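Hello, quick one for you while I still have it in my head. No rush at all, and the record is pasted right below.
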Amino acid sequence: MDTLGGFDHPAWLTAVATGVSYGIVLLGLFVALFVLPYLLFLAL
């Protein structure tokens, strides 16, 4: 019996892709707003 058979619908793929892309955007914003200014501050 396939226990994960209910997760093969395209809506689940869309939900996972949305979550992953949201995480990538948040990571990019974190780097742009916190990491880069910190590195620039250390370089001066």
Notes: The mean pLDDT is 89. Helices lie at 10-43.
